Amino acid sequence: MLFRILDPQTKTNQFWRDFDRLNDELTRSILNDQFGSSSHFPPVNVYTKEDEALVTCLLPGMDTDQIEINVKDNMLSIHGKKKAEDLAEGTEVHRREIFHGEFHRTLELPFRVNQDQVSAKYVNGVLNIHLPRREEDKPKKVSINIG
Amino acid sequence: MNTLTTENKQTLDEKAGVKEVQPQVRVYSPNVDVYETENTILFRVEMPGVDETSVEITIEKDQLQLEGKFKMGAEEKGQVRLAEYKEGNYFRKFTISKAIDSEKAVAKMKNGILELSIPKIEPKKTKIEIRNS
Prior knowledge:
Chain A is mainly beta. Chain A is 12% helix and 35% strand. Chain A binds chain B through residues 30, 33-36, 40, 43-49, 52-54, 56, 58-62, 85, 87-88, 90-99, 107, 110, 122, 124-126, 128, and chain B through 1-2, 5, 8, 28-29, 31-38, 44, 46-51, 72-73, 77-85, 109-113.
């Protein structure tokens, strides 16, 4: 909220209600301006093909052992902890914008996944997760015999 | 909160009826940590998806400029289900108020984070004698 006029009960005037709505939307759009809203850390992209899904996520500066990926049926969850930089004594902090702390994201995929064959790689701070579709879940082609 | 990026400025201009020809590349303002120790200034810049070959760092007098190109993998990915980020460029500029030795700056890139350390220099003291004429 950029700012809010107090005491919303008295706001019967259409103008102030419109103003509030505009205010709300502006604030949200500014917050979401960068890579999605902060409650959606890390930002992800999801791509699907007929037999597999690819989830990519922007996770700079992680140790791979601090990332936990869990898959169950069609749910993928990414969990992790990003450590804050250890600072030597006497270091002066001018700016601290880089996120640190715990994060958790759960995504629903359009099909069930073969857990045993999920693979992930981490390159240049981008995490790529390949999720193959479960065999029994794949669409089956039925051939029609004309006879 | 990050400042307005080129992209935002563009859409604002469009809404205001101002037409300006600009390349259709997203420009992101990367998150930055800036630390200062006794003899160095340290920048940590979040540039996920950027490899070291596409990073450009320039220091001109007290102006530090950081740029990086973010390209997604070219592999065939299939249908897009969710897109919370897109490829684009990272760009940010800083003014450094301390005396620095830009020749001795060291930069490295690891896991999408650029670390740049610039040594400070003690400003030279010159004492000026007043001559009696």
